[in-house]
Amino acid sequence: VKVKIPFGNKYLDAIFSVPEKSSTYGVVLTHGAGGDMNFPHLVSLAAYLASHGVLCLRFTCKGLNIAYRAKAFKAVVEYLKLSEDYRLSRVFLAGRSMGSRAAASVIRQLSQNGDDDDFIQGLVCLSYPLHRPKLQSKLRDDDLLFIRCPVLFVSGSADEMCEKKLLEGVASKMKAPKKIHWIDKANHGMAVKGRTADDVMEEINAQVYTWLTDTVELEQK
């Protein structure tokens, strides 16, 4: 279902992937610095989640300014919160690369402002860009260290923007419950020599879905 979400004096293009039965929780998903919501990995994940009963709203927000992207993400979350068509009790924020940085920024802002009313249940970071290539001395970990809700990282073990030891070091300092799933030999774009893109996406999709359901079950106990 295509929708246009108000954002300031413009609109953000977005698409709902709707499961057959109504879902009590959903995932808000966005792309990295390049591309848009039709990036193949996002389309694949949204379709997988919907086919397993989880509503997914993915959206496009162009722009390389992280504060702008976070503002757009916040507008999408507010839109979903007030939606009459899809009454969700909770959502998970998810993004690929820069999109996951924007999602982390939103969660930190809401918690610092005292606006975290349990609507946002967790964060999914696909290829989190922890540092620029070959610039491991400057880590983009500020938001991650403030987050308290559960976090899933899915990263390639050969990601040139997220060195394995560095992410594991950041994760060890995080206050939030966290899990890292490494895609063996994958780069930042999740390409692995000798494996098809579909095969890699199948692994990612299954990991994300399993973590989401486990997290929701824990919350309900």
UniProtKB/TrEMBL annotation:
InterPro entries: AB_hydrolase_fold, KANL3/Tex30_Abhydrolase, NSL3/Tex30
Ranges in a coiled coil: none
Stored Pfam families: Abhydrolase_11
Residue ranges of domain KANL3/Tex30 alpha/beta hydrolase-like in the record: 27-210
Gene3D superfamilies (UniProt xref): alpha/beta hydrolase
Entry protein name: TEX30 protein
Organism: Upupa epops
